[in-house]
Design goal:
This protein is mainly α. The chain is built from nine helices and four strands. The protein has helices spanning 3-18, 27-48, 56-74, 86-114, 124-140, 142-159, 166-172, 174-190, 196-208; strands at 211-212, 223-226, 233-236, 245-246. The strands form two sheets. The chain has a two-stranded antiparallel sheet. Strands 2-3 form a two-stranded antiparallel sheet. The protein is elongated.
Length: 247
């Protein structure tokens, strides 16, 4: 065999061997032999970096769902096929709000308990009471938040001569999504809730490309218009600095 060809073939075998692959082993045999070794290695690594009592990715996804449910409550007509039955909307919205409030309470209670190790003055009972209080205070702000959002929508419409209606603004402008989501984590941030406000803010960031820290206080109206596609700011309140909002 040509020496160069031999060297090439040998290097291929050595490479696959170093990667844990056997060219003469079928997948089933390889899974039976190699997977236990791999999982043991993963477990050894994960034990070093375990995060106890975390809400995990399941909790993160529940937070995303909570935001989506709150959006349905704040804009029920948009999520309901016409014709709109006001009585039915009130019932559906009430049930949705009750269910979502309980879900949020459970998440907040978990993160408060998780943070107990940093505050020895708290206990589980206090966390339960605090979670109830936080959720009640947040939801009591919903009528005011809805009015503010309408002001934001109108400001975006007034600031964009190409917009044909406020419906176009509500359904298509990423800035409105970012502002809607921001109003909720900001309220939670102000009440000292850990983790949850940042997850909510980063959810808005992933959806819109607009990054607003949950602690940032926005004036009303805050972002009057935001260009689609490039997401470049056309009009931004002087209260918002480049450090608090990134596009």
């Amino acid at each position: 065999m040509d020496e160069m060809l031999y060297t090439f073939i040998t290097s291929i075998f050595l490479y696959y061997e170093s990667e844990g692959c056997d060219l003469f082993m079928n997948l089933n045999d390889w899974l039976n032999e190699k997977v236990p070794e791999i999982t043991r290695s993963l477990n050894d690594i994960n034990r070093q970096y375990v995060i106890e009592n975390s809400i995990g990715f399941v909790g993160r996804n529940q937070i995303y769902n909570i935001l989506d449910n709150f959006h349905e409550v704040l804009f029920p007509g948009i999520h309901t096929a016409p014709p709109i039955d006001n009585i039915r909307i009130n019932i559906v919205s009430s049930n949705k709000l009750r269910e979502t409030a309980l879900d949020l309470r459970d998440i907040i209670e978990k993160v408060l308990i998780y943070n107990m190790e940093y505050n020895s003055d708290t206990d589980n009972y206090t966390c339960q009471e605090d979670a109830d209080r936080i959720v009640m205070k947040l939801i009591s702000q919903f009528p005011n938040i809805r009015k503010i959002l309408q002001t934001d929508i109108q400001a975006a419409y007034n600031g964009d001569p190409a917009a044909l209606s406020t419906e176009e603004i509500l359904l298509s402008y990423p800035s409105i999504v970012a502002e809607y989501i921001h109003r909720i984590p900001h309220e939670l941030y102000e009440q000292g809730v850990p983790i949850v406000p940042r997850i909510m803010s980063e959810y808005a960031h992933s959806l819109t490309g607009i990054d607003i820290h949950p602690g940032q206080q926005l004036e009303n109206p805050s972002l009057s218009t935001m260009a689609q596609g490039s997401l470049s700011v056309k009009h931004v309140s002087s209260a918002i600095t480049s450090k608090s909002i990134k596009v």
